[in-house]
Amino acid sequence: MREDLLHFIWKYKKLQLTDLLTTSGQSIVLIDVGLHNHLAGPDFFNAKANIANQLWAGNVEIHIKASDWYLHKHEEDSNYDNVILHVVWEDDATVFRKDNSEIPTLELKNYISRELLMAYKNLFDKRQKTFVNCEKDIAQVDSFVFQNWIERLFFERLERKSEFVLSLLKNSKNNWEQVLFSLLLKNFGLKTNGEAFLSLSYALDFSVVRKLQSDVLQLESVFFGMAHLLNDETILDTYYIQLKKEYQYAQHKFDLKNEGVIKPEFFKLRPPNFPTIRLSQLAKLYAVHQNVFNKVIHAHSIDELYSLFDISANIYWDNHFTFGKSSKKSPKRLTKKFIDLLIINSVLPLKFCYARHLGKDPNESIISIISNIKREDNSIISNFKNHGVTVKNARDTQAILQLYTEYCTKNKCLECAVGNTLLQGNV
């Protein structure tokens, strides 16, 4: 037995509602189960019940065992003084208020149908499952219910990403351009170099970027120099030497310090993702577009964003991946797939937070953009598709990733619209 099932039973009144008795034999007529509380304090606020022919209004606390009241030290917490009913699976202890009066207890196991318990058992039975608890039944959930849940999950994931955006905003003292610069750096670095690139953004004030962005070579020199990529004395490449000179000048002029910057990795990366290529591409973005932040904020379509990020690395990198080593010629242009990742992980969280900052509702615009981005492909998405889930676009994949990481892997089935619907349908 799990406490979340007891919460589900109480919240949706999935118990016998007639002839209810406390463990001491008093009659209970349930009027209002109360408001489910997910924070500290009693589990349900402002419940109403007629107990022993007397109307009570107050809070309800739910436990597996009645003795959990003392295990959790509720008797020492004034938040529980207004509990009118203790709802438990097993009554193994008598619970008293501070005035020494007994708190009425309802033992649920006497009032729950066998069908509900079997449905719950089947949902959490791992013996015949390889992926998620509801894998056999998820495709049966009504499409209207599922699509509403998917949209909610997408914004839930966006809310989670916005927490990082707001932390960047606080650290930058409300400089939105610095926030975007940090987000782009982190996501240009992808998983391997994300933290290294982010550390560069912490060390480099965006005001310096703004002053240098009219000259892409100067901007590249600062990015490379700050990232510890200009320290090799053996490289005699003309471009490399020029970058070093530009960096030394900028370092002195702007008092640049890179002691806290993490040197990015090359190991195990595909050459197009080498930090040299990605930093050059980012420098080119800011050199080509003098006001990236405004263009991001005012972009209302996916095509506007694709146009904004349609850039290539410096021409030097057409036949290089690292300094001083020639390679087969190929322009290092941002791919559509990479731009999609930038939009999902940098642009949309920023637009979401900035619109809210202005008191505007960004949802419609964001849904319009994300719905026009192709779905992502990974093992999690493939597994859901194999179990009958329709995945149309990036909104769906972002929502499904949220579903899997925050609900499925944590067995939060009773907080999920899918698990909730399956259980209610089996009662």
TrEMBL record:
Pfam families annotated for this entry? DUF2851
Protein name, UniProt field: DUF2851 family protein
Q: Can you name the source organism?
A: Maribacter algarum
Lineage, top ranks = Bacteria, Pseudomonadati, Bacteroidota, Flavobacteriia, Flavobacteriales
